[in-house]
C-alpha cells in the first residue's frame, strides 16, 4: 500500500500533503493536551510494533504480495490521535530510511494509512455501538476489516485516477492502469485475505496487550 | 507503579526483538505488491516507462537500506533483521527526543 514516487502527479502529491499535514497537526494538538511520560512509552511501542508488522509480507491472490499494518490494533489500544502520530512516524521512517513509499507520495501514504485507518476504525466502532452491538470483539473485527479495506480503496482510487487525469499524447504520465484495473486488483486481495488477517490479529492481540496500554503512572 | 511500566516495557522489548528476528519470514514471498513495481518491472509490463514516472521516481537518492536490505551486507535475511532493528532503534530515539522536548517545555 506504500505508493512509490513517480506513480502520482505532483498535483495529487501536493493535495494530500496539505490534507495530511492538517490532520496530523490536529491529532498532535489533541494529543499534546494529555501528554505525560507514559504516553511516549506507548507511542514508541505502538510505532515500533506497526513498523515491524509491516515487514511481514505474505503472498495474496493474483500473484502479488501484501502486508497488514497493525494500525487498527494500536488505535484500539491507545486511541486515534496517538495512533495517527505513531503510524505517521513509521511512514516517515520507511520513506526516508528504507525507501518504502516515496517522499513526494508520503503525504498520500500518510493519508491512506496513518489517518484513514484510525479514523475509520473509531468511526465504524462508534456506529456499531450506536447500533447496540455489544460484543466488543465483533465490533473490533468489523471495524478493522472495514478500515483496512478503506485504506486499500483510497490507494486504488488515487492510483487509478492518474491515467484518467494525467496523460500526454495518449500515454499515461504517471501510474498507468485506470480504476477498472486498480480497484479489483487492490480490493480482491484486501477483501478476501488482508482485511481478514488484520481483523483476526486485532481481536486476538487486543486482550493480552490491553493491560500494557492501561497502566497508570 | 512506575515499576509496572518498567516490567511491561521489558516484556514488550523482548517481543519486539523476537519479532525482528522473525521478519525474514516476510521475505518468503518474492512477489511485488500491486502498484509497487520498479521501473524495470514497469518496462517489462508496458514496454515503456511513463515520462512523469521516470522523472519523479528517483528524486530521493538515499539507498543505504533500500527496501530493507543493507547495502554492505549480502545476506538478505541478515540485512532484513538488521533493518528491523535499525527501524525500532530510530523510532525509540525519535520518541525519546520528543519526550524530552515536550516535557521540558512544560
What brief labels describe this structure?
heterodimer; A: 217 residues; Arp2/3 complex 21 kDa subunit ARPC3; two-stranded antiparallel sheet; 4 strands; 5% strand; B: 106 residues; mainly alpha; transmembrane helix (chain A); Cobalamin (Vitamin B12) biosynthesis CbiM protein (chain A); membrane (chain A)
Report what the structure shows.
The complex is a heterodimer of chains A (217) and B (106). Chain A has 217 residues and is mostly helical. Chain A has one domain: Arp2/3 complex 21 kDa subunit ARPC3 (Orthogonal Bundle). Chain A has seven helices and four strands, in the order H-H-E-E-H-H-H-H-E-E-H. A two-stranded antiparallel ribbon of chain A has the order 1-2. Chain A has a two-stranded antiparallel ribbon with strand order 3-4. The longest helix of chain A is centred in the C-terminal third of the chain and has 36 residues. The radius of gyration of chain A is 17 Å and the shape is globular. Chain A starts with 9 loop residues before the first helix and ends with a helix. The model of chain A has no long low-confidence stretch (mean pLDDT 95). With 106 residues, chain B is mainly alpha-helical. Chain B has a domain of 26 residues. Chain B is built from four helices and no strands. At the A-B interface, helix 2, strand 2, helix 4, strand 4 and helix 7 of A face helix 1, helix 2, helix 3 and helix 4 of B. Chain B: One of its GO terms (cellular component) is plasma membrane. Chain B: Keywords: Cell membrane, Membrane, Transmembrane, Transmembrane helix. Chain B: InterPro entries: PDGLE_dom. Chain B: It comes from Caldicellulosiruptor hydrothermalis (strain DSM 18901 / VKM B-2411 / 108). Chain B: It holds the Pfam family PDGLE.
